[in-house]
């Protein structure tokens, strides 16, 4: 069994590839945008923007396939149970493929639903349809790849994860340039390039993971009795369902923030959108430590080692706290220059700079919630995650009604900060019970 890293330097080496992989994720959208801007029209660009948004929400909603897999895999690895590691991955893989195929069958009603939700011009909608009708065929690969990613994170193979992300973006970039700039295929070329990159990333990742697990494609290589075990299947389903509800609550919270921002007018909406970019960028870094904790905590629980459990949480949280402090300082001091780069509008710049300190405070306060997410995912305590997501969302909604009436957008930001603190507080209340029961 691979030793579990416990030093600051070892955990940092484990987290850095995840941070880089996270940072590479938005490059997929940026690459599509840059290529279509040079080889297409504004209508094409609008179709890309709409399509990327819809696919982000669709796929993010099934993020439980990655999170649940990392926890189950890490615990099995910590217990030295290689068969259960393979079975946990296989259950998630089959579930991801099944959901992906279901999305293919439902692609037409889903497309109509997306167009009903999002308002756009008729010409942009036509381009979105072209993009959707090609890229949706990558759904089984994307969702199956979530299982691959979850297994790699659970096993602590973060450098492999980074390699796969770089492969995805590199192939996507090359094919985008070839199909759009070379062949002139426009938005269909963008969609086709992304589709091929997604399938190639899955196939390579699947082969690499099979090598890591020491199994092949032969039916005899898979522990079918373990895979089909009714209790394990039920646990997987329940865990994934809880994580899905938790994710929907988080989407609702951020959606509420954006919706309330729009009430204050276009300038405030734009300013808050700019500040949310700083928060999203910070999340790439803080998620790196959370992902590392998923593996470390799961493996410590699998080994039934409370000392190890406490040690990895303490060390990873110290690193995350230092990183959050640095990120908050960066947002506060460099933010004014970044705002000027992100938007040329003087009114939006002034509004964003006014609320910049609150965005920096949010970043500073958020690392605890990220760390606890990693702990609870590694421990597969999904019900507690679901419950705390509901409780904190209710706190946010209640405080925003109250504080917005008093302080308008400042009140909204204060409620948003209270939201991320509430997530940490509610999960923190569960932590002693988790520590006692799992180790």
TrEMBL record:
GO cellular component, one term: plasma membrane
Family membership noted in the UniProt record: Belongs to the multi antimicrobial extrusion (MATE) (TC 2.A.66.1) family.
Protein's UniProt name: MATE efflux family protein
Statement: the UniProt record of this protein carries the keyword Protein transport: no
Bilayer topology: Multi-pass membrane protein
GO molecular function: antiporter activity; xenobiotic transmembrane transporter activity
Annotated InterPro entries: DinF-like, MATE_fam, MATE_MdtK
Entry keyword set: Membrane, Transmembrane, Transmembrane helix, Transport
Transmembrane segments: 12-36, 42-62, 92-114, 134-155, 167-190, 196-217, 278-298, 319-343, 355-376, 388-404, 410-431
Compartment(s) where it occurs, according to its Swiss-Prot or TrEMBL record: Membrane
Zinc-finger among keywords: no
